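Components:
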Amino acid sequence: MGSVGAKEIPELIGADGRRIDGRRPDELRPIRIVAGPLHRADGSAFVEWGDNKVMAAVYGPREVHPRHLQQNTKAIVQCKYNMAAFSVDERKRPGLDRRSQEISKVIAEAFESVVFSEEYPRTSVDIYIEVLQANAGTRCAGLVAASVALADAGIPMVDLLPAVAVGKVAGRIVLDLKKEEDNYGEADLPMALVPQSGRLVLLQMEGHMTRPELGEALDLGVIGCRKIYDVMKQALRDRYAAGSVVSGAAFSAAGVAP
Amino acid sequence: MSEEVTAEILTTHILELARSGRRLDGRRPEEYRPVSIEFGFVTSADGSALARIGETAVVSGIKLEPGKPFPDTPNAGVLTTNAELIPLSSPTFEPGPPHPRAIEVSRVVDRAVRASEAVDLKRLCIAPGEKCWTCFVDIHVIDHSGNLIDACMLAAVAALSRTTMPSRRFELGEDAPLALAHLPMETTFCRLGNTIVVDPTFEEEGAAQGRLTIATDEVGHVVAMQKGLVGAFAPGEVKELAEAAFRHGDKLREAVRGGTRP
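Structure:
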């Protein structure tokens, strides 16, 4: 969003109905999830989704810092979403900014909605999301990574939380926006679904949609989330497949080993 | 929880093993963990690398943008190194302003890159006194299993070695490789009683009675050093370790030279 006045707007939907990267309107970008790639975290996951690369780690349930946030009847869920300086075209200054803080808050609240927090009173479940490479949809990629990381950490939850952004591009409702579609499209609607209940625990929207378009977008998002749900479950199955419970699953192609 | 805690019983065990030249992970004192590098890991950066030393993993991304030279160096560009010890990478790292530990890593890496003149800052000058390239070396530790200084340096130099100056993006001509003049590398040692080990794991760092980092270049210069943690080294030990630092540094340099430009 927010590129009003940009001079050259690329053609976002071609005459053949295909999108800028050749996808159909209801098609996801390629998504790859690796559960448990980190060694020090209690749970972790790496998500490569289109041109996004996101790592998530979970620590806990553990002592609450700062102490005054401690709750006597349940665990709290804390989240820090952070973008690496080199993750975007124009270098991002390291440190907290308002966007990251807002995203951290809505993601923490989404997870607090599904974690059985009353099982661990006076503790904190800490979620860290690091965006290493960004190309639209990082909060959804971060949420998916964090969800798999929570499962990897063995935190009891109602369900995994698949997430995806739906948008409106050149008048069409499309699934899983990439950067150009996010920048020049008419609307962006990220959501996270609890597959078991069919309810949404993260929902944001920016742009313009008619009521019918909103309905179409929500339906498309749910379908997208269910596809991502399958990939998430498979990542966890792969992690715990017989004999392959090793810490530090490779999350990238091996480099040069001297 | 703000400091790395190695349980006393583990510390005792590590020191006991060290007395007979053994280590927790089965390595010999002078043995480095396996090293690997993936170049071009982050395509949004002008140069990048994912470097691994054993279970330690570090991503570095380089960004260049036009800026203003410092008044006292009108003919040189600006180089900035920043290491983030993000809480994702270790149970003891907390969110918030940089911990002195992160600042130390940043500065030790920065010092070695700068002192070795690996990046020719004069080549980053665009218009003397007016305009120059600012080169940001951002380092993200994502898995901390010890020896962050060496890993951060390896990632940074690997990323710099494959960096493209994005001239076209800023309408300053054609893109060109940054081209490094030298390949500096850090080698870190820890004292465990009378034994000195190279490339410590985080458990060994927790048990260490002193840490020494020696940065070397490929033509035989020591370009930076840092003694850290509580403990001491004898001058004779430092001389011996410098010799070892060149041997290990050369292996790390080989890893950076290997591989192809993405």
